[in-house]
Amino acid sequence: MAQVEFKNLKKSFGDVEVVKQFDLKVQDGEFLVLLGPSGCGKSTILRMLAGLENITSGDVIVGDRVVNDVDAKERDLAMVFQSYALYPHMTVYENIAFALKLKGMKKPDIDTEVRKAAKMLELEPLLDRKPKELSGGQRQRVAMGRAMVRTPKVFLFDEPLSNLDAKLRGTMRDEIKTLHRTLKTTTIYVTHDQIEAMTLANRVVILKDGYIEQVGTPEEVFRHPANEFVAQFIGNPSMNLLDGKIELHGDKYIVDLGQETLTVPSRFHDKIRSGQAVRVGIRPTDIYLRSNHIEHDQIQSFTVSIKDKELLGANMLLKTQIGEQHLLVEASIVDTDSSAITDIVWDINELHLFDKENGRSLASV
């Protein structure tokens, strides 16, 4: 195992800057997830670490060794790809054993390692099959087994579950989590799926346009987003963002939302000014049709019009409108009715304020 460090890492393809600045230290044994939309640079960062892409500038350090000019096969890293990348003419056993054969390991030792990995990944009944005879989840487990037997310093996963159906992705997430808990190997995992990030990671790195937007535990990035992008990227359904303007009424600040006003919690008072344009953030799950479970002095009440409804299973997603602005409310089915107008309350302790000019959270100012 080893820690990994990126120092001022940059990558350009011609005139196009894909990774503009990436500085990060991954602790020994940590499970780190690089999360972001397509084109943010996350897979490129992983491929530079693996030695599959040249570095434009900066350093990649594995353990205490700068690996910028080290061949990929000499970096002691194991990568699991989105496409599985199995040899179609080889059996499961041969695919897992291939890297060990290249290292010149003796046959009895290879057999021991292959069967140990196969047992952990429940591949023992499949060892004589070819990849074409396997399901997508089984192929991905073979790819994981091939990486495991190498006992690398670092595991790299490049969107390994994106080709699988939803149920199988859940199963494979559990297997990857169990694998990391068992082997305790430093792991860097790339995905655009926030559910994968939130369920697997010790820490999440959220990327946008080649820059880091925020680094933190899953709980930190969900509960304390650094800016509007993170606030809306993390969480499903996305956080509501309402345009407003700060006004001072006596010794209290309010946000004018147009047809409604909102009292600003005192924790923001030293970070805002009268006349400031802001965006108010509230998650749909922090808005309620009933207020019995919230302290009365911690709620804000509004009247909204319901424009549409979506069934989420046990809950209903209400698409409402507050003045001219749209507001999503996730409510229990038993609380909803067919009314076009309804009263809602939200917990002001869960309120977020963002500076409209730069999108940054005012909680961190």
Question: Which features does this protein show?
Answer:
OB fold (Dihydrolipoamide Acetyltransferase, E2P), 365 residues, six-stranded mixed β-sheet, five-stranded antiparallel β-sheet, 20 strands, 8 helices, alpha+beta, single chain, Rossmann fold
Protein described:
Pfam families: ABC_tran, OB_MalK. GO terms for molecular function: ABC-type transporter activity; ATP binding; ATP hydrolysis activity. Residues 4-234 form the ABC transporter domain. This is sn-glycerol-3-phosphate ABC transporter ATP-binding protein UgpC. There is one protein chain. The chain has 365 residues and is α+β, with helices and mostly antiparallel strands. The chain folds into 2 domains: 4-233, P-loop containing nucleotide triphosphate hydrolases (Rossmann fold), CATH 3.40.50; 240-364, OB fold (Dihydrolipoamide Acetyltransferase, E2P) (Beta Barrel). The protein has helices at 42-50, 92-102, 107-120, 136-148, 166-183, 194-200, 218-223, 228-233; strands spanning 4-13, 16-26, 31-35, 57-62, 65-66, 77-80, 154-158, 186-191, 203-208, 211-216, 240-249, 252-256, 261-263, 277-282, 287-288, 299-311, 315-322, 325-332, 341-347, 352-355. The strands form 4 sheets. Strands 6-7-8-3-9-10 form a 6-stranded mixed sheet, sandwiched between helices. α2 (92-102) packs across α3. The longest helix has 18 residues, at 166-183. The model has no long low-confidence stretch (mean pLDDT 90).
